[in-house]
Amino acid sequence: MDRIRITGGHKLNGTIPISGAKNAALPLMIAGLLTEETLILDNVPRLADVAQLQRILGNHGVDITAQGKRVGDRAYQGQTLHISAADVIDTTAPYELVSRMRASFWVIAPLLARMHEARVSLPGGCAIGTRPVDLLIMALEQLGADISIDAGYVVAKAPGGLKGNAIDFPKVTVSGTHVALMAATLARGTTVIDNAACEPEVADVAACLNKMGARISGAGTPRIVVEGVDQLHGARHTVLPDRIEAGTYAMAVAMTGGDVQLLGARSELLQSALDVLTQAGVEIAVNGDGIRVARNGAGLRPVTVSTAPFPGFPTDLQAQLMALMVNAEGSSRITETIFENRFMHVQELARFGARISLDGETATIHGVDRLRGAPVMATDLRASVSLVIAGLAAEGETMVNRVYHLDRGFERLEEKLSACGASIQRISD
Ligand code: EPZ
Fold first, then answer.
1. Which of 57, 237, 345, 367 is the most buried (most CB within 10 A)?
2. Which domains does the chain have, with CATH numbers?
3. Residue whose CA is at the smallest distance from ligand 1 atom 13
4. How far is CA 303 from CA 16, 88, 360, in A?
5. Contact 24 CB / ligand 1 (< 6 Å)
């Protein structure tokens, strides 16, 4: 199993190209199931999760081809996927596949909307909390689906097709909104989704669905209105840049000091995180090529932050911010409001010498002067990268184990960081 070795203490200077967003690419690929024509997606990141979803969609009979590099492509250009679900041969998503990647549960929506039936395994537990799917099921039931649970599978049927209706989410859910949106595109009549997630990835999926012939308005706001259509057609869409990857590298630069251009990053997708970094004393400048992040000399100021749905501070940057605040001059407080168990990195950060105390959903981080490198491992993607950030600033050597978590969501992490002066290598045993 691969590991990553980091020798800390090097400033980051240079340019980091930002890849396409994993959390948009996954639902966009799933949306390909809604039409028998070809959906072409550009700027798809080369990630383990994308490859895994390709296998899962292949199981339903979806044909996916990845186009190779063309003359003039940049070194880091994302891949282009041609997704063709002309013949859906199987409407069952088995446990072996769904349990490896939660987002694959979302195939239930296009399968039900287009094929009028789906049998999808319940995803099971997860390292960052219980993560139920009750609200996804509620949304599909509102659209007229008949749903039962059988031997660990959700069995959904809508023999006459789905019917538009009101869906009012009692809490903001990205997965629930994706599922409601995809299902409503082919439902008869109008669907109004209230308390919808406003995440940019939801708006990106809606933009793609509209190119495919859907009639969606209001995506990116808490009220989305969908006028159902009889069928969708092929389209071409470019995945938006990954705001979490951009925020992660911004925090890495803040941690080590230096000056880095985040190429292609869009500030409006991560304004809350940029505001927190500015508060901490990091220099942020938005320019035509993306976002420039710098910290030279000055210490980091502590911050108080709560995670929240977009446009609030993202839970997917909580672990990285915590790693950064380990080096701040004073005490910071970080409250996690989205997932109940997303503090698995605390014990690992302690291995570097961090002083963090936990009280329910709030962590208090007492800044320390120096960190010492250590062998560490994490149980989820964002926690793993927080350990990389700590390792970049720690004295001596850090070994990050279980690198497959990083490969799920960060494209060429070690290449991007070493190009900016970090001492970071992958070790394949
Ligand atoms: C998406 O997960 C992202 N995943 C997560 O990214 C991200 O952390 C999360 O949104 C929040 O922004 C993808 O896009 C693939 P939710 P999702 O439905 O959609 C509860 C990463 O590291 N809930 O918005 O699963 C749930 O338990 C990841 O890239 C219910 O109670 O998140 C949580 O507390 C991890 N019932 C809250 O809502 C439901 O039926 C928000 O979850 C569904 C959700």
1. 345
2. 3-18+241-427 (3.65.10.10), 22-238 (3.65.10.10)
3. 23
4. 26, 50, 19
5. no
